[in-house]
Specification:
The chain is mainly alpha-helical. It has 21 helices and two strands. Strands 1-2 form a two-stranded antiparallel sheet. The chain is globular.
Length: 418
């Protein structure tokens, strides 16, 4: 039996011990509220058919609009935080700059605190749990092996391309010359993983179900009681890093001029990161989804072939082709182009950031997406949402990402590649 999520176990009628104290009852209530509707007709319970995920109504359009707005804000924050710059990402893995780390930790901290608050408020707790269960469900075929190997490949690809899955289209919007080639590499990586997914899954899936999926499940404590201290503990760490190396000395652009909030070329990375982490709120409340990035490339790659042919070549990509969850994430990621474009044009920085060589862009693009899909998430999926949901696999994938990127940086310097 493959490892299954909390939600799946609850639906099969088995006890669930891996979430908040009363998760079994909560999940049953959520299923009743959001999934199945029944009519009691003289003692006969009729289960009404669920809505076809491929059908879009006004509600779906509104949700896609929310995804688009969130994506625009994400693109703006990433452009202002300068983490879309290839040099910033490469310098992080070389330990020459910590802009990326500061922004990442701020986004994780902000996301954790927002999710923790939503987990206890009566008006949002059900939506939080629904989104959390949906997120955990995606990792039913993942284990520590795939998370570690995939995370290392993700970091390696990020170092080579000077980008991250969620930031490639930000680079496109900001006018980086190599960004389109990186994007093409990402689509190739998604297609390559989709074709080989059955073999990879058979080789890497755990032989036994994971005993625990989350930290709160492993420690038998409430999510809120763990998420809040973790989120708060990251704040002084960010402060120490910025005290040791001020961010104004790390970014390549001029930040001394007195500019407005949108015309400024750079924001403090912790402010930009906090904005991105807070985007968990609209995504959870209105879309019932957490932030992600790499899965959208599978959706976009699936559009390159006719449906019948794709179904034969890659059932995995065929499943990613339609459905609101897939289209919602694709909308979120693609609209980051708009946010980055607006931000760079207003600041007068469009097209001023140097890219990487085209072969590095392509190789890095497909390596990081292949690794992200193998791990089950990228810097957004594992980093923001996985760590935000206290997913144990994410605490294996993210350190592996930094190790993979740093080892690749050392190798590239040793071979005089950069």
């Amino acid at each position: 039996m493959p490892p299954e999520s909390t939600l799946i176990e609850a639906r099969k009628g088995r006890p669930v011990h891996d979430a908040n104290a009363n998760i079994t009852k909560e999940v049953e209530e959520l299923d009743e509220l959001f999934s199945e509707k029944t009519n009691d007709n003289h003692g006969v319970v009729e289960v009404l058919p669920q809505k076809d995920e491929t059908e879009f109504d006004i509600s779906s359009i509104v949700k896609l609009l929310i995804c688009a707005i969130a994506g625009i804000l994400d693109g703006l924050a990433m452009e202002k935080g300068r983490v879309f710059e290839p040099s910033v990402i490469r310098h992080q893995f070389e330990f020459r700059s910590f802009v990326m780390m500061k922004m990442f930790l701020a986004a994780v901290s902000s996301g954790l605190l927002c999710l923790a608050l939503m987990s206890i408020l009566p008006s949002t707790s059900q939506r939080f749990q629904l989104a959390r269960n949906s997120f955990i469900e995606r990792f039913q075929l993942k284990g520590y092996l795939s998370s570690a190997i995939g995370g290392a490949l993700l970091g390696s690809g990020m170092m080579i391309a000077g980008g991250c899955p969620a930031g490639v289209l930000v680079q496109v919007g900001a006018g980086i010359s190599s960004s389109v080639v990186t994007f093409m590499g990402c689509l190739f990586g998604a297609f390559l993983y989709g074709v080989s997914e059955p073999i990879i899954t058979s080789l890497t899936k755990p032989t036994e179900p994971l005993k625990h999926i989350t930290f709160d499940g492993a420690t038998n404590r409430r999510y809120f009681n763990l998420a809040v201290p973790f989120g708060l503990a990251l704040i002084p760490l960010i402060a120490i890093l910025d005290f040791a190396i001020p961010w104004t000395q790390e970014v390549s652009t001029d930040v001394t001029s007195d500019s407005g909030i949108f015309t400024s070329r750079a924001w403090a990375p912790y402010y930009a990161g906090a904005l991105i982490g807070s985007l968990q709120v609209p995504m959870v409340l209105f879309v019932s989804e957490n932030l992600g990035g790499s899965s959208s490339y599978c959706t976009m790659a699936s559009w390159t072939l006719p449906g019948d042919l794709l179904k034969q070549i890659s059932p995995y990509l065929y499943r990613m082709r339609t459905g609101f969850k897939n289209w919602g994430m694709a909308t979120y990621v693609t609209t980051t182009v708009v946010g980055a474009l607006l931000s760079s044009v207003l600041a007068g920085s469009f097209g001023t950031t140097a890219g990487v060589s085209l072969h590095h862009a392509f190789i890095g693009g497909y390596t990081m997406i292949f690794g992200a899909r193998l791990a089950g998430g990228c810097t957004s999926g594992h980093g923001l949402s996985g760590m935000g949901n206290l997913l144990l696999l994410s605490f294996a994938a993210i350190p592996a990402m930094f190790v993979g990127g740093s080892l690749t940086a050392a190798y590239m310097h040793m071979m005089n590649i950069i």
